[in-house]
Amino acid sequence: MFSTRKPESQPSTPSPAPTRANGAASSSSSTAAGGLLSRGVSIRGTVKFANELLIDGEVEGTIDSTGNLTVGEHASIKGEIKSKSVKVRGTVEGDIFATERCELQAGCTLKGDIEAPRLVVDENATFLGSAKVTPKP
């Protein structure tokens, strides 16, 4: 019933987290499958991506995608956004064109127009513009 055998010892120090080619530690969070433009990063020009992207930095220009975009709470976007799905938590100055869904979450600010088949606006979101909500045929 009881064993006098000692369990095999495990190393006391954890192994370091695997790193990506750019030196950033990889994780199993939701951004592991997509991209991340972190806080403090600033881009001027066109941003293109296919799957998922979380932007928590600054972008001045066009964002063009067939995937899902999340504008983080520290993000500042100045320009047009075209994507399948857009979640806004930060600040956007420009129009949003979503082919599936646009969501304005609490604390966000959007100064621009929205065109999407589905639109969700939290009561604590700031939206200055117009919305065209037309279901897909």
Q: Gist?
A:
By secondary structure, the protein is mainly beta. It has strands at 35-37, 42-44, 47-49, 52-55, 58-60, 63-65, 68-71, 76-78, 81-88, 91-93, 96-104, 109-111, 114-116, 119-121, 126-128, 131-133. The protein has one domain (30-133).
List the helices and strands and how they pair.
Elements lengths: L34 E3 L4 E3 L2 E3 L2 E4 L2 E3 L2 E3 L2 E4 L4 E3 L2 E8 L2 E3 L2 E9 L4 E3 L2 E3 L2 E3 L4 E3 L2 E3 L4
List keywords for this structure.
137 residues, mainly beta, 10-stranded parallel beta sheet, 6-stranded parallel beta sheet, 0% helix, globular
Describe this structure in words.
This protein is mainly beta and 137 residues long. The chain has one domain (30-133). The chain contains no helices and 16 strands. The chain has strands at 35-37, 42-44, 47-49, 52-55, 58-60, 63-65, 68-71, 76-78, 81-88, 91-93, 96-104, 109-111, 114-116, 119-121, 126-128, 131-133. Strands 1, 3, 4, 6, 7, 9, 11, 13, 14 and 16 form a 10-stranded parallel β-sheet that branches. Strands 2-5-8-10-12-15 form a 6-stranded parallel β-sheet, with no helix packed on it.
Count every helix, treating DSSP H or I runs of 4 or more residues as helices.
Answer: 0
- SS elements, strand count: 16
The ordered H/E elements are EEEEEEEEEEEEEEEE
| Mean pLDDT score | 83
Amino- and carboxy-terminal Cα gap: 68 Å
C-alpha geometry: globular
Rounded to an integer in angstroms, the radius of gyration calculated over CA atoms is 21 Å
Structural class: mainly beta
The stretches of 5 or more residues where confidence is low (pLDDT under 50) are 9-32
Largest sheet: 10 strands, parallel
How much of the sequence lies in strands comes to 35-45%
Helix proportion: under 10%
Q: How many structurally independent domains?
A: 1
